[in-house]
Specification:
Rossmann fold; Arc Repressor Mutant, subunit A; alpha/beta; single chain; 2 domains; about 210 residues; globular; six-stranded parallel sheet
Length: about 210
Amino acid sequence: MTRIVIVDDDPMVRTGLRLILGGAPDLELAGEAGDGRQAVEVVRTVRPDVVLMDIRMPVQDGLVTTEQLLAEPNPPRVLVLTTFDADDLVLRALRLGASGFLLKDTPPPKMIEAVRAVARGEPALSPSVTYQVIAAATGARRPEAREELSRLTERELEVAIEVARGSSNAEIAERLHMSVATVKANISRIFAKLGTDNRVQVAMKVRDAGLA
């Protein structure tokens, strides 16, 4: 059972999300909050697996809240919700360690699957906006990103590029002719060398470097 907290200042949005997610037998709504400060309190109390986080909220926005939550011991995974196709705040949330983002009008089945994917430790990015958001930083960050990726071995870099392409561990194993266990080991080393917490951050560094 995946426990979820919904954070949005709009009661109608929270109601809609409750209706969408409440129908999935493997998802449990553990709590909700209308602003960032309340969200931190709720998350500390109910200890969810996934937080659906709005960005623009009164009192404390989703960016500050995401940073605070991810600094907690055993933090939840954060899935950012946005109304906009390309949003600098969403980009900043991803760099802080959010596991992905979705448009608020994402169809219910895809919303449910995104929550499940994030709970499994996989990224969840709206296809229509992924390249727009990531491209916002590409170019200016290219030298820095390439310097960071130079810490990887040739094999680790190949794996990182596959991660940026959205490949699963099984797909990477097949394409690079290695076992899934070896792929996982490589990804763990990539996280450590790049100082990242999830696949989204790795993908952004690879794209910043112009390698995918």
